[in-house]
Amino acid sequence: MALFSEKIVLDLPDCDISYYPNFLKEEANSYFKAVRDGIPWQQDEITIFGKTYLQPRLTALYGNNGKTYSYSNITMKPLDFTPELLTIKSTIEKEVGTEFSTCLLNYYRDGKDSNGWHSDDEKELGKNPIIASISLGAERFFHLRHKKNKTIKHKMLLEHGSLLLMKGETQHHWHHQIAKTAKKIGERVNLTFRIIK
Ligand SMILES: O=C(O)CCC(=O)C(=O)O
Ligand SMILES: [Fe+2]
């Protein structure tokens, strides 16, 4: 593992977001296969404004303290971390200087899978959550939109093996999404490490 990772700090108001391309280096390929093939992915039903939908992606939850995570009317119970997830977790912890308890994983099977506008502001994450998001597989655009002034937007490609770090007041002021795309693209997995107390 190299000592230094290249770090790009986003120049946007009211947020603290940095991006580390190629964070996982040559290990990214084997992590991608291990996570895609080794995780018991589930597709949950979510309820939004009283209507029930199948979530447009697969998910899984891992954690080391048994704490559940609830959003969009579903409550997920954590599984025990796998060796690969623990290695990724400690690689991030060394860079960031923070210990994470939980990882929410997303599997986008193709361009039709998505993750709608939201902020990671569930109460179990605390006031100013730190969220470390690893991308593996196909590149997808990550869209950011300011909550008060929706004309302030930003879009960035999340590359294979990259780390996106969101902290401070980011979740108070910004929504983010992974939009559907009509382009023919492959599978992507995303790992968002969080702290649930
Ligand atoms: O797939 C991504 O990069 C974003 C995932 C996300 O926003 C979330 O799980 O809260
Ligand atoms: Fe999110």
TrEMBL record:
Domain Fe2OG dioxygenase span(s) in chain numbering: 99-197
InterPro entries: AlkB-like, AlkB-like_sf, ALKBH3, Oxoglu/Fe-dep_dioxygenase_dom
GO molecular-function terms, A-Z: catalytic activity, acting on DNA; demethylase activity; dioxygenase activity; hydrolase activity; metal ion binding; oxidoreductase activity, acting on paired donors, with incorporation or reduction of molecular oxygen
Keywords linked to the UniProt accession: Dioxygenase, DNA damage, DNA repair, Iron, Magnesium, Metal-binding, Oxidoreductase
Cofactor or coenzyme needed: Fe(2+)
Any one biological process term the GO annotation gives: DNA alkylation repair
Transmembrane domains' residue ranges: none
Keyword Membrane applies: no
Source organism, top-level taxon: Bacteria
PANTHER family in the cross-refs: ALPHA-KETOGLUTARATE-DEPENDENT DIOXYGENASE ALKB HOMOLOG 3
Full protein name: Alpha-ketoglutarate-dependent dioxygenase AlkB
